[in-house]
Amino acid sequence: MARASTRIASVLVAAGVATATPSIAFAAPQAPTAKAPAQAATAQAPAAPQHNWKILWEPPSDEVTAAAYWKSMGIKGQRQKKGNWCGPAAAASALSYHAKVGSGTQASLAKKMATNKIGFTSPVAMGREMTNYINKAWKTKGTKYRAHRSVKNPTLWNTTRYSYFRGQGPLVLTVYAKKSWYPKAGKAVAHYVVIYGFDDTTNWNESTYLIWDPAHGKRKLKATRWEKIAYAGKLVVRW
Length: 239
Known about the structure:
Layout: E1 10-16, E2 50-56, H1 63-66, E3 70-72, H2 86-95, H3 105-112, H4 115-118, H5 123-138, E4 146-148, H6 153-165, E5 171-176, H7 177-180, E6 190-199, E7 208-213, E8 217-222, H8 226-229, E9 236-238
Antiparallel strand pairs: 1-2, 3-6, 4-9, 5-6, 5-9, 6-7, 7-8
């Protein structure tokens, strides 16, 4: 489903056309006894149109123009209400792109995903309950979100772009807390964060993701870092 795409270069055209009007020079009048020298009339040929092309292969340096390259999916990020509710909070944040999410959504998802019972959130259960939530809100059927394994760096970037342009919504990542932003966390502690935007660069390894972290808030993640912090199985819950 992922497809590679490239940034379309912006082309600014400044076309200047200079057209010269033909001018004819005549000899000045002479005395009757003097033979006026014959002077041929000369005409200046019209100048060829001049086109100045400027191609911007990279984003402009000014922030206003460069901001157009950031693609963002509108979400209402939620902070996790309990220490082990990063999964329900991430799911609720991603779901806010698709449907109305209330203050009680985290608790409801935590119960349905068995977060309270087993102490953590299963990516499989998350995909199932996110699908159920959307189907109920939209009054429809069919699988929406599900867990995907072994997602590599280029695939994640292509999938993120595809999800954005197809309106399929944010993606939920499972990362090692210690390897990402929490160096004091235990080695095996998993953490959920949401990709809700990205820098639409020409190459995936130059891009950066916009991240919602339920334990912190907004963050950024270099596209090259995903596999370095991805939890065992490199699991991504996406449409």
